[in-house]
Amino acid sequence: MSAEALGPKEVLKTIDYKPVKRSWLELTVEFRKGTYLYTPPRKLLDYLGLPNPRKWLPSEKDWQLPENWRQIILEGMKDRLSKYRSFQLFLDICVRCGACADKCPFFIGSGDPKNMPVLRTELLRSVYRKYFTTSGKLFGKLAGARELTEDVVKEWFYYFYQCTECRRCSVFCVYGIDTCEITMMARELLNSLGCGVNWIVDPAAKCYRLGNHLGLPPHGFKGVIDTAIEDIREITGIKVEVSLNRKGAEVLFVVPSADYFASPHWFTFLGYLMLFHEIGLDYTFSTYASEGGNFGFFHSAELAKRLNAKMYAEAKRLKVKWILGGECGHMWRVLHQYMDTYNGPADFLEEPVSPITGTKFENAKSTKMVHICEFTADLIYHNKLKLEPSRNDRWKVTFHDSCNMTRAVGLFEEPRYIIKNVCNYFYEMPENTIKERTFCCGSGSGIGADEHLEVRLRGGFPRANAVKYVRERYGVNLLACICAIDKATLPPLLQYWVPGVEVAGVHELVGNALVMKGEKPRVTDLRFQPLKGEEGEGDV
Amino acid sequence: MKVLYSLLAVIVLVLVAYVGVGLLGLHSLFGVMIPYAAGAVFIVGLVYRVLKWAKAPVPFHIPTVCGQQKSLPWIKANNIESPHNTWGVIARLALEVLLFRSLFRNERVELRRSEKLIFGGNKYLWLGGLAFHWCLFIILFRHLIYFMEPVPSVVLFVQDMDGIFEFAVPTLFLTDLVILIALTYLFLRRVIYSQIRYISLSSDYFAVLLILGVVISGVLIRLFYKVDIAAVKELAMGVISFRPTVPEGISLLFYIKLFLVSTLVAYFPFSKLVHGAGILLSPTRNLKNNSRMRRHINPWDYPVKVHTYEKYEEEFREAMKEAGLPLEKEN
User: Fold this and answer.
1) Average pLDDT, stretch A205-218?
2) Which residue of A has its CA nearest to B208?
3) So what's the pLDDT on residue A538?
4) What is the pLDDT of residue A540?
5) What are the residue ranges spanned by the domains of chain A?
6) Which among A119, A513, B1, B255 is least surrounded, fewest beta carbons within 10 Å?
């Protein structure tokens, strides 16, 4: 039975960390509802020019693989072995010490041994041995090698979409073996057979054509901005100015599209606009580059690069000086570790300097892209903001480190510094579950679809369990985070595992606490909920 | 089953040496030629392997960051867990190689009463692994005594330190004892813990049993079946100076040990044992977290198809105009 139908207690009872008897080399996958993702329609693959489009479903017996599928995979592997040292090295040097096993949130939440990072990689490594190493060719199964069959492809599809590329395992590996690298290679190989996922290809196609994953056309974006301006006016009495596609602005501001489309992202979006108004930042949005995130990254390096290209292209066209980026996890993995390589050098931009404090962001002097938390922390440090943290007093806050903000960027203290300045009640989760050891929301890297709920609930269990700890201990009722996928997928996850904890972006809390010049007395927060002490006053 | 196969393989190796030297008297084959061949395989194999890794480019900048980045001047950056300069990388790698830093983080997760996750410390693997590798290093260093004349005083010093308990137990080296314990632990955890047993391959058992075979034969030689050390040294010196001689009076057990060592050495580059050479090349550990400060170049980068702004405006010009958005071309 699926997890959705079962309660949390029953689901936890299904977890057994003792592996089954049969060897992992022999098992085949069962595609049970709730544990696999739907496939993209032909027209999307056609639109993006991706290979082997067809109509198929993982639950069907015949996947209609192209005739030369084996050749495509093996040649694809060979090509990537020569292009990625990580791939070659990580396939060669694992000693199977098992330290990574209980570090993966999907293993902890499911007990499925193939969710141990070491075995997830062995799914591919066993094929590598068979076709690319002497010992595998000679000794076969004895050396842990196996034939590449359709069942293996199916198994890859199942398990490489139960990895969120969160990289927690690589923190604990003494050789730094990063399962994310393996998952990325495996997904590229699967996609070369046309075995993709709709939840990835659909937003990628929309982003390619319309500029953002959610498929908002330019005039739609304008409408959304107008709504935000109206919301802010209602809460603060102040009419903020927002420009779109304006040439000559100092800063191009790019956010994940969920920020201006979904809830609770929306309140963070209001927070940004209020902050920029208050400090008088000369900035603009772009409708063409209206997406910070990058679902291409969950498909292939090539598609990631194609989508990412818009950001620099637009910064150049609009003649801005530098780029500021909103709250998002994998978005920042790409911006921090990949963008300059993909589409740099950004020599048409200037090294970022905060126009308010004069701080030079030397850590971004090559990409010219600054994280909003770096920007805001600097403002607070220089006393440029008037803050009233008591406006967040109804929240007892904990902070969830997003995988990529820590393990790719190293942004540990900036958001904490902000939260401590805008909130009076802040409590950390246990140290095994934060910072570099943070647990994934269970839905990152393009696997957050509704049809995948059981996998997500299980993968998110370790995170929820740590939230439960601070909920019981300190009465925490708000989880703050800086990732759009977190904001989208943690509310239902927490609702399931630890009801009573809501989710917010850090800049929502900033927006609440920010005292704006000329604002009317605030009676509600950005969610239109009465502020503490204002409840029940009159009939406002 | 896998354990049995591996044990059998090691026993076969012992028997081969027993038959070869003990029954057939092939002293120079096992004392000189096989070690030469093994050494050659080791060097060629290792160079091939490392060159293969080194030749594969690192297209993207992918360090696994485990500490605060260097950003604002008033936030303390962690230069070891998130290195921003070469010294940081050197420190990070040194900690990894010398002290197994990442493994030290290891913890055990338990689901208590099907309800709560409990995180417990789990330093045994770290301790066992570290003890094994350091003992191996000291033992190898100690063996220089057979390959150098005169013997450098530092080697003698290490040997003396290692034998510090000899006053209590004659001829007992501390490292021999510790490595035996560590190897036994590393072997047993593969057999006992169901998760580790599940992921283990025959080759995993084989590697640890082979090394155990080498250590046990060495200890036996030292404790019970004394060999003529002068003769062994004559053999060793002859081999490394490429003027091999096969002196009389070297026991069969020594040849068995030498054959196991030869097998290990030849097996090394083609097995997971080669991990030692890989760690320094690992891109998640040897790169600085400076990818926004300095551009990382992908050597095989190629142009890709993009959807340009012109095409975008082309498609939405009318709607954009109506919404009052600025345009590049009015019509």
Assistant:
1) 97
2) A95
3) 46
4) 39
5) 8-195, 204-513
6) B1
Which residue intervals of chain B bear CATH 1.20.950.20? 2-300
Interface contact flag, A219 B103, Cβ < 8 Å: no
Q: Give per-residue pLDDT as tens, A125-165.
A: 999 999 999 889 998 888 899 999 999 999 999 999 999 99
Task: With beta carbons less than 8 A apart as the criterion, state whether A76 and A192 touch.
Answer: yes
DSSP code string of B208-242? HHHHHHHHHHHHHHHHTS---HHHHHHHHHHHHTT
Q: Which residue ranges of chain B lie beneath pLDDT 70?
A: 167-170, 331
Cβ under 8 Å to A: B residues 187-246: 193-196, 198-204
A23: distance to nearest CA of chain B, Å?
7
Inter-chain touch A88–B305, beta carbons under 8 Å: no
Superfamily of the domain at B2-300: Transmembrane di-heme cytochromes, Chain C (1.20.950.20)
* pLDDT tens, residue by residue, B268-320: 998 999 998 888 999 999 999 999 999 999 999 999 999 999 999 999 999 99
- How many whole angstroms separate alpha carbon A116 and alpha carbon A456? 16
- CB < 8 Å from B in window 199-238 of A: 208-211, 217-219, 222-223
Task: Specify the pLDDT at position A57.
Answer: 93
* Residue spans of alpha helices (H) in B105-240: 124-142, 153-162, 174-192, 194-199, 202-223, 229-240
Using the Cβ of B61 and the Cβ atoms of chain A, whether some distance falls under 8 Å is answered with yes
Residue B155 near residue B148, CB atoms below 8 Å: yes
